[in-house]
Protein 1
Amino acid sequence: MRSPLSLESAVASIANRCARTHRQGLGPGLAVVLTHRSGWCEVMAHGTANVVTGQPVTEDTVFQIGSVSKVVTAAALLRLVEMRSIDLSAPVTDYLDWFEVRSEYEPITLHHLLTHTAGLVSLIDTVSASEHAVWQLRDTETGFAPGTRFHYSNMGYLVLGLVLAAVTGHSYADTVATLVFEPLGMSASSGASPGHCRPPLACGHERRDGAAMPVLPASITGGHAGVVSTPTDLSVLLRMLLDEGGGYLATSSALCMTRGSVTTDWPCYDYGYGLFSGRIETLGGHRIIQHGGENPGFEAVMIGDLDTGFGVGVFVNSYEQPWELAQKALRILQAVDPQGLSSDPPHGANRDQSDSRCPPPPEQSRHPLAGRYRAHATLLTDFAVLEDGMALVLESGDGYRQPLTHLEGHTYTIGDPPTPERLTFGPFVDSRVLACAIGGGTYSRVESE
């Protein structure tokens, strides 16, 4: 058995390891947060958030966290369960009546989606919008009877994000802000990854000939990978989980997340709601919770030890994997005696239950076709359809505008005089357009940035 390590010594050891790992190529930007369920938190920042501008990484830098967003989605759904606004055993179609997938089995429930046991494909494509991708599930088939196997599916959590929006009447981003970020005090977090990297947002990067180069900023929305956050904010979420809900969630709800109920294809790990968990021998045989995430140009890891109460979050604005650093940092913290750490009031313990109810849905006044449309596999990657008085215009990414003239049905001509291209909108759900087609390419509608 190792001798207890002082917290100061542990932090110094981890700081040295972080600096060395960054110098060896984990970056260009690296942020690490260490925390304990008592409230203690320490942030370490290295390198640059954007190699073009030289913007440094700080404790306030905002990173895309990829699939760690699933933890936020699960927490929001459990809050709605506690508010008696949703039933996780109910079929998805009870809340999203247009949801459809080819299946010879029983209906898919929210529980199946939360545990990756619905039998859905992992991902339709790389389009960042949510409704259109979910609409395309009707062209796929379930791979097995719901509840019988684990198969990790981003599509499942994309559906859950739409369920949250349908139940509350607000976008996914607004819903998780109301149900998760505001009550936990995560003021720097958002449920939508914007399509830019202006400060305090970090820019994603990839290696080209050994040098870090920016990638095209991806606007990602939805319950699978849309959240952006800071190291400090992520530590709040992690402490809530390590503290069995910490007054924000009921203990029984928190345990639905931290106690895996489904066997996965990851050795030693089961899956709860939004989290992998298991006793990991390389981490002292302790009860570990974790989730990683990857978006274009970003990697993130959140890992916690339920036995000691310590947790680690790692953010990187490139494709280098941060798992080894996260696990080594947690292993060092496991040697610390947590007795004597300051104890703050549980997060959300004094929350007025009525405050967490969502406000009424906003009135819709925009033209039904107005919005931003995006694709990743075409020359014109994104554009916006804007209102100009009583008319519509198409604005490309460089700000160039062309008038749209109604031709027939949902089809418009572009430009004056018109170009050969035609812009056709559809499909539609509840009078909302999900996508459009132009020049042989399909563009999914995304939430406004």
Protein 2
Amino acid sequence: MLLPLAHRIARAIARRVPRSLHDDVRAAAAIGAWQASTRFGAGTKDQLRAYATQRIRGAILDELRNHDWMPRRLRASKEQFSQFSLEEYIFAKDPIGGPRRGYPEPLVALATQEDDAQAVRDAEALRKALRRLTPRERLILAETYGRERLLQAVADELGVTEARVSQIRTLAIRRLQETMRARR
């Protein structure tokens, strides 16, 4: 009874993690089901199912946390970043040079005072270069770098193959690099 439940929960969670972790998710789900069956006391079938669901999800999340190199606090700040587009994040400065209220501290604002003028010029050049990209190229860069989505997820959203998303991203990066090199 609990193993089919474990497989169903594992499939739902596995859709949101890299394929390299799918086996680990399934194994953690099976362990969670086993733990639920051995630790559950007397109760109805529905109570066991509710308890097992929580145990299985918890076991999977524990396993994913073990594989995650990023501490929870850093992950939370990364998710705050994902609310903003790539361009909003890079250029989130008010007119006097500080970060805008509600935005994470942008990369440009981290420059020292001596580098500030150059950083502003570089940021403006990057902004212009980003505007020259096609909307599809900007979307792919924002989704893969800004929101750190998998290429396959972006490909599914755009209705193209993962390889095509990779090609478009590579071309967009190359165009940005060429534009920035030409400035120097």
Protein 3
Amino acid sequence: MAKRATTPKVEERVQATVTMLLDGHSRGEILIYFAELGIGDRQVDEYISRAVTLIRAEALPDLSVEYRRSLTRLDSLYSAVLEKGDQRTTLAVEMQKQRLLGISRAALATVPTDAPPIASAADLLARVSTQLAAEQHPDPDARAVNVARLTEAASRLLTQLTLRRLGVK
């Protein structure tokens, strides 16, 4: 029976396989390289499998982190450009953010501009519930952002309604 390689030796071989794959070597070339070291095909296939897993893990970013990072960058850029008074760039940044959030002109066109005033908290709750039920963005992070914005808007409207009822303008 062949002697088993130590964990550091296996990791070294997997890293060598990663390098060879990234350099464009074929499976056959990798098999030949390891055959010269006395390593069998099945074990080399295991190294290749682990190497491919490592390469994929490095190649794919965490999309939720990248999404939030992009939103933060756009917010910072928007603030900086707005402060300088550059309206054209401000508009471009806002449009880019809307694109990232999945807000389209078609979606904005469905927002009622002639909606009747909110009569009660129950009316507000019914409207928000209807819009939340209609919210079906494919990206859960974008959906969460849209729901948070809608909730924030509902909260502002509820405050206005309460102030109006108290007679405060």
